[in-house]
Design a protein that fits this description.
It is a single chain. The protein has 192 residues and is an alpha/beta fold. It is built from five helices and six strands. It has a six-stranded parallel beta sheet, covered by helices on one side. Strand 3, helix 4 and strand 4 form a beta-alpha-beta unit. The chain is globular.
Length: 192
């Protein structure tokens, strides 16, 4: 992982996709410590690559910093992870909150929702875990988002967000005992 972090710093423009998670060979009792350390090294690598890219002024794409287009993870343990992702180049994010990880951050936490709203280049977003008002509002600020998949939406009465640009929408709505309404009339670009 340290080698990968170094690669990000030196050749970040060549890395287009990262799927982050614990390898199968790590025992269950060691996974939490492994993920904490791995995420910290990844964050430091992304931050260093971003600094390297802005300082280098190089013409080669490989030396321009991280040009990451896709990132997926089943656990976010540190609030520093999402802000370390390159907002300008990232177009796809898969973010699941694993219930198996006690220290995995809630998708509705202020650090996650603030970081999501800053990922202005996102075109495709998949959120797994319970998603509520604050997270939905952050998603509503993503002007380029065309594909949205939310695996569990908990919508209190009066919730709304503007997602008129969506072309694909996949929702699993959790009814908290009351009536849930999903208004799709404003989604004129919706194809699927």
């Amino acid at each position: 992982l340290t080698l990968f972090s170094g690669l990000l710093q030196q050749q970040g423009g060549l890395v287009s996709s990262i799927d982050f998670g614990a390898p199968a060979f790590v025992s269950t009792e060691d996974q939490a410590a492994y993920l904490d350390a791995a995420e910290q090294v990844l964050v430091l690598g992304l931050q260093a690559a971003a600094r390297h890219g802005t300082a280098s002024g190089a013409a080669s794409a490989a030396l321009v910093g991280v040009q990451l287009r896709s990132f997926s993870t089943y656990t976010v343990r540190s609030p520093a992870l999402l802000p370390a992702l390159p907002a300008a180049s990232l177009t796809r994010l898969v973010l699941h909150r694993s219930t198996g990880w006690r220290s995995s951050l809630d998708l509705n936490s202020s650090s996650i929702t603030a970081a999501l709203a800053q990922l202005s280049g996102l075109r495709s977003l998949e959120l797994g875990g319970s998603v509520e008002d604050d997270c939905i509002a952050a998603v509503g600020r993503l002007a380029h988002l065309t594909n949205l998949r939310i695996n569990s939406v908990s919508c209190p009465a009066g919730s709304s967000c503007d997602l008129q640009q969506l072309q694909q929408l996949h929702l699993s709505v959790r009814d908290g005992g009351g009536t849930v309404r999903v208004a799709l009339g404003q989604l004129t670009a919706l194809q699927q």
